[in-house]
Amino acid sequence: MTLTRRRFTQLTAAAAVAGTIRYPEALASGYTGHKNMEGALAPELPLITAAEIARLDHDRILAAANKALAEKPITLTASHSPRSTGGPHDYFSEGDYWWPDPKDPNGPYIRRDGMSNPDNFNDHREALIRLSLLVPQLTAAWLLTHDKKYAAHAVEHLRAWFVTPATRMNPSLTYAQAIHGVSPGRGTGVIDTLHLVEVARAIRHLEKSPALSAADAAAIKQWFSDYTTWMVDSKNGHEEEIAKNNHGTCWVAQVAAFGALTGNKDAMALCRKRYRENLLPDQLAPDGSLPLELARTKPYSYSLFDLDILAIVCHIASEKSGANPEADLWQFKLANGNTYQKAVDFYFPFIADKSRWPFAKDVEYFDDLPNRQPSLLFAGIAYNQPRYIALWKKFSPDPKTAEIIRNFPIRQPLLWITQV
């Protein structure tokens, strides 16, 4: 794409709306140049820039962030379940699809796939999701305005969760997604901290703000480093790592995000290896579908969810290196030639028009999807596909249903398209 006068004017106008995001900073890394009509080298612009996203989401970001300024930190120490075998600083949640057995009401719970039990203890998960909403909102507002109040309030929440001894969370998920009468905590519970992926991205931006001191940054990074170690070394963490469906994808996305934050090159290399040797081979069918998700009672929701998380893995963990072409996960090919793009192309028609969905409808919340799926944004940029970006723009960025919010962990695209 030639950088025409009109295109330059559009970009600089968007940058003006974005406040502190300037045109050179709006270009994502890795774009090449080509010669324009005058023979001079011109940048090859991405289909959508940080400045354009800033313009698109400007009012949305500031409205949310201004409300967030009134929200005080609430960590998991504010509530405790008598069914938890952990302490006050240990995260606890219960398996979503597990219910009392009508034949034995006081006995072990039984599974009803796809049906969430509203009576399960959910306070810690809700507090974590709240954090995952507030910190990215505030950080995005700081990127737009460079007003320190937004960054300072984001840091207040981070300090409460990861630094302050009285309120911090222990860096483990030993007691997550417990099942009454069956297990005090399971490997599947590691998926609960998927909501820290965008928080980790926000922290990388906040490091440039004077609101985040060197001491606090070091303490926060140490928490994420300790948690990554737990994810890799613990029994529960390992169980989640080897899961073949979206749970395994979520493990890789988390380790990649936390490794990027802490500079853990071994973790990043492990994530690339898992993607090449396990995630794509185990999950992607020759036609581009994700059969392990289609087999669930919510096939549409789980398919879009896994599609998003795979894109997040590619976005975070890919490296463009001539010496190691397999490090670019977007371009990694299976033996049959398929890349991740095959999955996007398979699901694209059903995101564009849900009425064309040829499989079973989800048992819950089918009408609440799709939303502004990050897979379309990230893959649109990676594969230079305008139709992905155009479709992404059509959908709501802010789902209202709690269950959909829980499965929609990337909500502030400005954090992801702006360089860190």
Please specify the SSE layout and strand pairing.
Elements: H1 5-18, H2 23-26, E1 33-35, E2 41-43, H3 50-68, E3 92-94, E4 98-99, E5 110-111, H4 123-145, H5 148-162, E6 175-178, H6 196-206, H7 214-233, H8 235-241, H9 246-262, H10 265-283, H11 291-294, H12 299-317, H13 340-352, H14 374-382, H15 386-394, H16 402-406, H17 413-417
Parallel strand pairs: 3-6
Antiparallel strand pairs: 1-2, 4-5
Helix pairs in contact: 1-3, 3-4, 4-5, 4-6, 6-9, 7-8, 7-9, 9-10, 9-12, 10-12, 12-13, 12-14, 14-15
Description:
The protein has 17 helices and 6 strands. The protein is mainly α. The strands form 3 sheets. Strands 1-2 form a two-stranded antiparallel sheet. A two-stranded parallel ribbon has the order 3-6. Helix 6 (196-206) runs parallel beside helix 9.
Q: Which descriptors would you attach to this protein?
A:
globular, 420 residues, mainly alpha, 17 helices, single chain, 4% strand, disordered N terminus
Question: In a nutshell, what does this entry contain?
Answer:
Helices cover 51% and strands 4% of the residues.
> What spatial form do the alpha-carbon principal axes imply?
globular
Whole-number radius of gyration? 21 Å
Mean pLDDT: 90
Strand order in the largest sheet: 1-2
Low-confidence stretches: 1-43
> Helix amount, in percent?
40-55%
What is the CA-CA span between the terminal residues?
25 Å
Oligomeric category: single chain
Q: Which structural class should the secondary elements be placed in?
A: mainly alpha
Element string (H = helix, E = strand): HHEEHEEEHHEHHHHHHHHHHHH
Query: How many strands?
Result: 6
Number of helices: 17
Strand content: under 5%
Largest sheet: 2 strands, antiparallel
